[in-house]
Write a structure and sequence with these properties.
The complex is a heterodimer of chains A (282) and B (312). By secondary structure, chain A is mainly alpha-helical. Chain A contains 13 helices and no strands. In chain A, helix 3 packs across helix 10, helix 4 runs antiparallel to helix 5 and helix 11 crosses helix 12. The longest helix of chain A is centred in the last third of the chain and has 42 residues. Chain A is globular and about 70 Å long. The mean pLDDT of chain A is 87. In chain B, the strands form 3 sheets. Chain B has a 4-stranded parallel sheet with strand order 2-1-3-4, with helices on both faces. Chain B has a 4-stranded parallel sheet with strand order 8-7-9-10, with helices on both faces. Chain B is an alpha/beta fold and 312 residues long. Helices cover 46% and strands 14% of the residues of chain B. Chain B folds into 2 domains: 143 residues, 3-Layer(aba) Sandwich (Rossmann fold); 117 residues, Nitrogenase molybdenum iron protein domain (Rossmann fold, 3-Layer(aba) Sandwich). The N terminus of chain B is likely disordered. Classes of the chains: A mainly alpha (282), B alpha/beta (312). Chains A and B meet through helix 2, helix 6, helix 11, helix 12 and helix 13 of A and helix 1, helix 3 and helix 4 of B.
């Protein structure tokens, strides 16, 4: 029991735990749509595209959340625009834009003169270093994201699974598409501080991907994703405390481990499930 | 089948995760000491002091002796700019009675981290305590590597002693005695360094550095730094900057490029080959190394030996 309560005597761990639960929830909810819509690559793209925003925030001395938010949302909308308005395939458009944005960040970073803050903290983030102020803005942003998903639950669902019928029934599918891209961008921004640019896409898609191995029913899938996302974040954070290793990487590894377990043991793809099905079928 | 099995799979999954967490909990990590083996071990009532770098941690340990339990935030051989704190680091910060930093922009991310985490005791920034006129600035930004002039390291020691006395007022006499003894050793180190560098012929004293860490050393001991390869860690030079540097090396007749152990020497090696000068890539500045460079005194002696050898 002390193993669980001992870390809680440190304020930084409690803040990290709150952030882990928040990030785990928001990522799993938005990630469920991302995985079902096949937009994982956009998550990867938006996270890297946040980098020039972080550099800009450093240069102009504005909050990192603001810089990252503007860059991420701008890139997500830009990608959406190029995909919808040109004949360039989605993965090509994403590849061109996100590497361009990342290069812009590196270019700008190299142009800053004097002793600059660390590139690596931008790239890796640290959930343990979240201040109370950071946490409050993260919670506010996270609540906004969840509220939008909840309010537009039916519309998003309809536009995700049957965009043609949704459009025919008069839903503004194009607008919903852009709104969804903004939600993905903001989710990435919320998670950046926890795990950083390089690992953030795993937070977004791994819980939902794991849940997809376990269920095909949408509501259950999202609940499972949230359970895996929150559980994985908490377990990963504790494991990093016990083992004294980097927290972001540990959280991602725990979630990846859960994916592996679901792959091996899950009812639809798992070896055990298959054996049982074979035994059941004469 | 699909209606029941997800739930069962979920139960199985959580059981597996629980097993994993128990397995992980079995191997609680220990904190490795990065400091020299000749330091006394902390006595039972020792206060916890956190220093941002191993160099500062060594100075604190020399002054505090067995009265302090010192942790360095950046580990030995680590680099401040690529530092990623672990949970144990943050526990050390939150329990520290004193935080010792350099300031002057060297360890800003770390002092920010300390402010976020919160510590029991105050934060002192040793470089900020130096007289403004003592600082060497580039484009208005003071260079932080002041401790590489041993005379300034002695000022650091004096500031550490007074901060430790504030934290442990009843042990002031012990701290004063330890600080005086260590200061005498540093005075000797300063004189030794000056004598070793004085033996280098005047024509051979022009050098290039990988990153601008040696202006205080050069100023104190009579070297002339012609230029640096990178302006700040993580920022590779542009083609134009390399061309300008090569021209500066040729025009000045610089003898050597000095690079530090914690950085890759690939770039310095390529430039040295192009310019026809030698590379000494195993110097220490921000961080201590393995023995004999595992203390501040050892670091200075190690660097001086290599610098003198490269310039002969």
């Amino acid at each position: 029991m002390e193993l669980l309560t001992d870390p809680l005597t440190h304020a930084f761990f409690v803040r990290a735990l709150a952030a882990a639960v928040l990030v785990g929830t928001v990522c799993a909810v938005v990630g469920t749509y991302v995985v079902l819509k096949g937009l994982a690559f956009i998550g990867e793209a938006v996270s890297h595209a946040a980098f020039p925003g972080l550099v800009a925030a450093f240069v102009f001395k504005v909050p990192f959340l603001l810089g990252a938010g503007v860059a991420a949302v701008g890139t997500a909308l830009g990608i959406g625009l190029v995909i919808r308005r040109t004949r360039i395939r989605a993965d090509t458009a994403i590849g061109v834009i996100f590497v361009g944005m990342f290069a812009l960040g590196l270019f700008w970073y190299s142009a800053i003169k004097g002793f600059v803050a660390d590139l690596f903290s931008f790239l890796f983030g640290n959930i343990l270093a979240i201040s109370t102020g950071d946490l409050i803005s993260l919670v506010a942003l996270g609540v906004v994201i969840l509220a939008v998903v909840l309010v537009l639950w039916k519309e998003l669902l309809y536009a995700t699974f049957d965009p043609l019928a949704a459009a025919a029934s008069g839903l503004p599918v194009g607008l919903l598409e852009y709104l969804f891209l903004v939600l993905v961008a903001l989710t990435i921004v919320v998670s950046l501080q926890a795990v950083g640019i390089i690992l953030v896409v795993a937070m977004l898609i791994t819980p939902a991907a794991t849940a997809q191995l376990l269920s095909i029913h949408f509501n259950r899938l999202m609940l499972l994703a949230v359970a895996i996302g929150v559980g994985g974040s908490i377990l990963g954070l504790y494991a990093s405390y016990w083992l004294n290793v980097a927290s972001g990487a540990t959280i991602v590894l725990v979630e990846t481990g859960a994916f592996g377990l679901a792959l091996g043991l899950g009812p639809r793809t798992g070896l055990l499930g298959r054996r049982r099905r074979e035994a059941a079928a004469p | 089948m699909t209606a029941r099995s997800p739930r069962r799979a979920g139960v199985r999954l959580s059981a597996s995760l629980a097993a994993l967490s128990i397995a992980l909990a079995g191997c609680v990590a220990t904190e490795a000491s990065a400091l020299a083996p000749d330091l006394p071990s902390p006595e039972p009532g020792a206060i916890r002091v956190v220093a941002t770098t191993t160099v500062l941690a060594d100075l604190v340990a020399r002054v505090g002796g067995s009265l302090v339990r010192v942790t360095s935030l950046v580990p030995k051989g680590g680099e401040i700019h690529t530092f990623d704190p672990r949970p144990s680091t943050l526990i050390a910060i939150s329990e520290a009675s004193l935080i010792v930093a350099n300031g002057l922009g060297l360890d800003e991310p770390l002092t920010d981290l300390v402010a976020t985490v919160g510590s029991r005791g105050p934060v002192i920034q040793l470089g900020e305590g130096l007289a403004r006129t003592a600082l060497i600035a580039d484009e208005g930004q003071p260079n932080p590597h002041a401790w590489l002039n041993v005379a300034y390291a002695r000022l650091y020691v004096a500031a550490i002693a007074s901060a430790l006395k504030s934290a442990l007022p009843t042990r002031a006499a012990v701290i004063d005695a330890q600080a005086a003894a260590y200061d005498a050793r540093l005075a000797e180190l300063d004189a030794w360094t000056r004598a070793r560098l004085a033996a280098v012929p005047a024509a051979n004293r022009k050098v290039i550095v990988l990153h601008d860490a040696f202006p205080y050393f050069a100023n104190a001991y009579g070297l002339e730094v012609i230029g640096s390869v990178i302006s700040s860690p993580g920022q590779d030079p542009s083609a134009g900057e390399i061309t300008a540097l090569l021209a500066a090396i040729k025009a000045s007749g610089a003898r050597a490029i000095f690079s530090e152990a914690q950085f890759s020497d690939k770039l310095a090696g390529a430039i040295a080959a192009e310019a026809g000068v030698v590379v000494e890539s195993n110097l220490y500045d921000d961080t201590l190394g393995d023995a004999p460079a595992d203390s501040f005194e050892g670091l200075i002696r190690w660097d001086v030996d290599r610098i003198v050898a490269a310039l002969q």
